[in-house]
User: Which sequence fits this backbone?
């Protein structure tokens, strides 16, 4: 009779980490690359729209204001070139700028 291994053959993790660690990474970016102004949102309240101020950072390429919910993590050295998600290799980017650069470095990125 064949014995089954005590653990599965695959893990549930990937390079990006868990959803908790990805959220913490985005929070770290907003905190450490803090913009000169905060993002202002108007949310529905019981007596009409209420003003909500959230901390924000700026996209490294286009300069748009990004909150924790909007920011994406851009690796300075892309993953295809061996880059990791360590804090010395990440910077804030908006979704459009991050997807536009792809696996290229800043000097090779399409503008």
Assistant:
């Amino acid at each position: 009779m064949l014995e089954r291994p005590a653990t599965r053959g695959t893990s549930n993790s990937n390079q990006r980490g868990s959803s908790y660690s990805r959220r913490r990474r985005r929070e770290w970016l907003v905190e450490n690359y803090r913009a000169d102004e905060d993002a202002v949102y108007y949310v529905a309240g019981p007596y009409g729209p209420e003003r909500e101020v959230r901390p924000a950072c700026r996209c490294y390429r286009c300069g748009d204001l990004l909150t924790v919910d909007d920011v994406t993590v851009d690796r300075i050295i892309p993953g295809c070139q061996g880059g990791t998600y360590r804090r010395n290799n990440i910077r804030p980017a908006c979704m459009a700028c991050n997807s536009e650069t792809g696996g290229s470095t800043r000097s090779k990125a399409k503008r």
Observations:
- The domain at 19-103 is CATH 1.10.30 (DNA Binding (I), subunit A).
